[in-house]
Amino acid sequence: MIFRARQFEFFFPRPALVMGIVNVTPDSFSDGGKFLAVGAAVAHGLALVAQGAEILDLGGESTRPGAAPVSEAEELRRVIPVIAALVPQIQVPLSIDTRKPAVARAALQAGASIVNDVAAARGDAALWRAVAEFKAGYVVMHAQGPPLTMPEPPVYGDVVGEIGKFFDGQMETLQQVAGIAPEQVIFDPGIGFGKTLEHNLQLLAGLRSFTKKPRPLLLGVSRKSFIGKLLGAAVENRLPASLACATLAVAAGVRIIRTHDVAETVQAVRMAEAILSRKHELFD
Questions:
Q1: Residue from 45, 34, 60 nearest 94 by CA
Q2: Which of 150, 155, 181, 202 is 20 to 30 Å from 12 by CA-CA measure?
Q3: Is residue 97 a contact partner of residue 63, using CB atoms and an 8 Å limit?
């Protein structure tokens, strides 16, 4: 299996990729406001790469449930200077976490290589056309609606089966409508995006049904609210549970782990892979 994002190529099987999060926002649930200044965001991105991040994911609009949208102009103001400063200094792909076609296009023009789309169930193909034009990577994330209007409570008949069908349908649409090649696509089940605690746990338990598909699976569970709901842990105390999810995900075949805590996640994932490489049967 190959994942291509502009000049970058990753061949699987290989050690899982760790994607480091850089939030250039005042209101992200975990680290909002910490890296809003360009210099702080760039320094944080460089630090994550030094810790072992093989992809950086940069976002200028919070996508936590209930978050209010920001204007296109404001999102561009936040992210483009950071991309312009980071890209010449790193040797890893930079992902832009956005729902807006104009932001995606501007980020790709500035040197980003991946578009991480939390609104992949879209009808407008403008963002897809930018991905196809730049031969960028594209993360297809499942969500029940935009952050501000996600249904509460969300309803599924079979959350694992329905999201699996969503991935299959999107793959066909991307090829037919926009000419995006399968090698450009990553799937993300969207933990926490229009899912209850039980839905999230079912998705984590059912990861193997997604990792059997012919595209890499990305998982983002870092510090998310379902951990707090289950364990009563505050945001700053959710690292152990995040690492537990990451290691079990790697055992299930997840290829990319998105995280705020790069150094700790790299260490946990590499240990899990070392054990799994010895053909241990613990997770079977």
A1: 45
A2: 202
A3: yes
Which letter does DSSP use for residue 67 in this model?
A: P
Domains and CATH numbers, the chain: 13-275 (3.20.20.20)
Q: What is the pLDDT of residues 88-142, one digit of tens each?
A: 999 999 999 999 999 999 999 999 999 999 989 888 899 999 999 999 999 999 9
Of 258, 270, 278, 279, the catalytic one is: 258
Does residue 223 carry a catalytic annotation? no
**Is 224 one of the annotated active-site residues of the chain?**
yes
Query: Among residues 100, 215, 224, 255, which one is catalytic?
Result: 224
